[in-house]
Amino acid sequence: MAKVIKGIDWETFHKLRGSEKKEYFIRDEKIFHIIMPQQFDRPFLDEICELTSKIRGIAKGNKGIAFLQSLLQGKRAMLYFVQPSTRTFLSFMAACQILGIQCSDVRDTATSSEMKGEWQEDTVRTFSSYVDLIVMRHPQAGFAERIAFLLNQISRPVPVINAGSGKDQHPTQALLDIYTLHRSFENYGGIDGKKIAFVGDLRRGRTVRSLAYLLRNYSDVTLYFVAPPELQLGEDLKEYLREQQVAFEEMDRLEEVIPSVDAVYMTRIQDEYDEAGESKRIDYSAYYFKKEYLKILPPNAIIMHPLPRRDEIPVEIDADKRAMYWRQVRNGMWVRVTLIATIFLKDKDIKEY
Ligand code: ASP
Q1: Cβ–Cβ contacts within 10 Å for residue 270, how many?
Q2: Is any atom of ligand 1 closer than 6 Å to the C-beta of 166?
Q3: CB 206 near ligand 1, within 6 Å
Q4: Cα–Cα distance between 122 and 101 in angstroms, integer?
Q5: Starting from the edge strand earliest in sequence, which strands make up the sheet with 195-199, in order?
Q6: Domains in the chain with CATH codes
Q7: Nearest-10 Cα torsion for 331, 337, 342, 345
Q8: DSSP 232
Q9: pLDDT tens digits, 2-44
Q10: 177, 201, 206: which to mutate for ligand 1, most atoms within 8 A of CB?
C-alpha cells in the first residue's frame, strides 16, 4: 500500500520524529488529529486547561448544558476500541453525549469483515464514511497514526483521536493528567518547577510515556523514575528527555523520593504485555504507596494514578485530600469534551459563551 500524501509515503512518514509529524495532524492551522503528545506545545496545553475550566463552569447550569448539547448536534462518532477498555470508552462516550454527538462502536474485530481477511485499514476507512470522528484504541503502537495518515488522503477526511495505542502512547490521558496538575498547582506557581515521581511499570506504561513527553513543555520540572530495573523507562524516551533538557533521575527506592516531590504518579504492572510470565518474578510490592508514606509526603503534594489500580494504592488513602485519582477520572471526561469541541472549531463559541 504505497500511498503518498503531501509528497511523503507512509514508511518515510512513520520514521519522522514526532515534532516533524505535527504538520500532518493539523488542518488550516488547527489541531485535527490527536495522535501523540509530541504534537502539542505550551500555548495549546494552556488553552486546553483554560477551555476545560470554562466548560466545567458552563455545564453547571441547565442553560449551559443545553448550549453544550447544541454545539455538535448532528455529528456522529465511531468509538473503535479493539483493546480492553471501559473507563476510557465511557469517558469518550460521555464527552460526545455532552456535545450532542451520537456514538456507534466497534469493540471486537471478530464480528467485522476483518474475519474475512479484510485489512484493518480498509475496515476503518469503510466505517469512516459513516461518521465525523473516529476515536481509536488499538493494541498496536502506531496504528492510530497510520489511520490518521490514510484518512488525510480521502476527499472527506475524518479526524482521529488516539485513545491508547499499545505500550506506546495515551495522549488524552496525558492531557487530563496535565489538567489535573494544572488545577492542583494553580495557586502554587503552576506546573513549572515541579518535581514529579513516576512509579511502577514505566517500560510498558503508556500513560507515563505520554505524560513525560508532554512535561517537556514546562520549565524546570524534575522527573523521578522509580521502578524495578526490569521495568525502567525505555531508552527512546530517556534520549528524548535528554535532548529536550528535561532533568530526570532513575531510582528504585520509593520512600527516598516521597519527601521532596510535588506529585507521585503511581501505576499498575502492565502484565498483559508479558511474553513469558516475567512479571511474576518481580517483587512489585516495593512500588506500592504505603499508608505511612502519607506522613512524609509534603502537604501540597498530590497522588495520581491513571487507574485501574490493583494494590499500588490502598483504599484508605482515597480519603486523603492529596489523593487525586478520582478527580483525574472526572477531569478526563471534561478534557475530552474540550478536545472534541476544539477539533470541530467550537472553541471560539465556548470562549464567548
Ligand atoms: N488505563 C490506563 C491505560 O489504558 C492505565 C492502565 O491500564 O494501567 O493505559
Answers
A1: 19
A2: no
A3: yes
A4: 24
A5: 247-251, 222-226, 195-199, 263-266, 302-304
A6: 10-169+331-352 (3.40.50.1370), 171-271+283-325 (3.40.50.1370)
A7: -160
A8: P
A9: 344 566 889 999 999 998 999 999 998 999 999 999 999 999 9
A10: 206
